[in-house]
């Protein structure tokens, strides 16, 4: 899949431009509400594409989509400043409890499935890694490629930053090997980057780097490692045989109405799910 360039951290009105007081004349005297989505950078492009397609069919709809990470989106929802959370991890029990205390009744929508793809430079001869060794690489128990059958070179470890749902999920499943009692953390020399694209670009230019990205961001400029000899293919993610397959979510108001309700229905429709697939993820339908 061709790499998609994205602008993260600036709220943009998808397909319609940003809103200002001066632009109200364009919409007439009555200012319509904007449905706001925020959160996971992994499904940012996918959510933008869904919103664009929806607005093509619904000319009066106004939808704003921005990234920042799953944690940022969840915090914004708890602060009641957005409508829909985009998340690459399930909300934690404490977050759901807080939402309930605030009178926010949420419904979890599985938008699609992702295989977190482990990537290395094109010049790296490693093709497969066990999930145990992968965990040791990211916790710095394994620090040299020769320990994995590669060149004698220090491994440069790249991770998403702590606001990312992918960061949290990868730590739970790989670094801590699903052990709830484990306190293992990413290694002290880990480089934390703000987006899937940033990790991909660094791996492309650094022959000793290893990182992870959402499968929708994979392109031929880097190599994907199989994990436990299983590749992050559509089939393997769909049947959950790939060790780092996961759901990606929208968290929405259970009592949603209007454009928010229509947008959710559209995202789960055959047309919406075809967009999920076109963006490189596995649809739920």
Automatic annotation (TrEMBL):
MF terms in GO: phosphate ion binding
UniProt superkingdom: Eukaryota
Sequence ranges assigned to domain PBP in this UniProt record: 34-266
Ranges annotated as spanning the membrane: none
Keywords: Signal, Transport
Signal peptide: 1-25
Oxidoreductase as UniProt keyword: no
CDD domains in the cross-refs: PBP2_phosphate (cd13566)
Pfam families: PBP_like_2
Classification via NCBIfam families: ptsS_2 (TIGR02136)
Protein name, UniProt field: Phosphate ABC transporter substrate-binding protein
Source organism of the structure: Hirondellea gigas
Lineage: Eukaryota, Metazoa, Ecdysozoa, Arthropoda, Crustacea
């Amino acid at each position: 899949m061709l790499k998609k360039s994205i602008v993260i951290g600036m709220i943009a009105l998808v397909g319609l431009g940003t809103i200002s007081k001066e632009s109200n004349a364009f919409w007439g005297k009555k200012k319509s509400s904007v449905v706001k989505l925020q959160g996971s950078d992994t499904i940012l492009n996918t959510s933008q594409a869904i919103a664009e397609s929806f607005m093509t069919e619904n000319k009066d709809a106004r939808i704003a989509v921005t990234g920042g990470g799953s944690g940022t989106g969840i915090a914004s929802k708890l602060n009641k400043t957005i409508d829909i959370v985009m998340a690459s991890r399930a909300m934690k029990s404490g977050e759901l409890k807080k939402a309930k205390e605030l009178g926010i009744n949420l419904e979890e929508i599985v938008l699609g499935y992702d295989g977190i793809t482990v990537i290395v430079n094109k010049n790296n001869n490693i093709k497969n890694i066990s999930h145990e060794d992968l965990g040791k690489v990211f916790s710095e128990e394994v620090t040299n490629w020769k320990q994995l059958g590669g060149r004698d070179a220090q491994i440069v470890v790249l991770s998403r930053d702590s606001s990312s749902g992918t960061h949290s999920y990868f730590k739970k499943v790989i670094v801590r090997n699903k052990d709830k009692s484990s306190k293992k953390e990413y290694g002290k020399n880990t480089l934390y980057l703000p987006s899937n694209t940033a990790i991909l670009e660094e791996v492309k230019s650094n022959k000793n780097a290893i990182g992870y990205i959402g499968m929708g961001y994979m392109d031929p400029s880097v190599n994907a490692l199989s994990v436990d000899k299983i590749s992050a293919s559509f089939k393997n993610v769909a049947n959950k045989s790939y060790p780092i397959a996961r759901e990606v979510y929208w968290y929405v108001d259970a009592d949603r109405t209007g454009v928010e309700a229509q947008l959710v229905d559209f995202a789960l429709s055959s047309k919406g799910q075809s967009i999920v697939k076109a963006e490189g993820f596995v649809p739920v339908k």
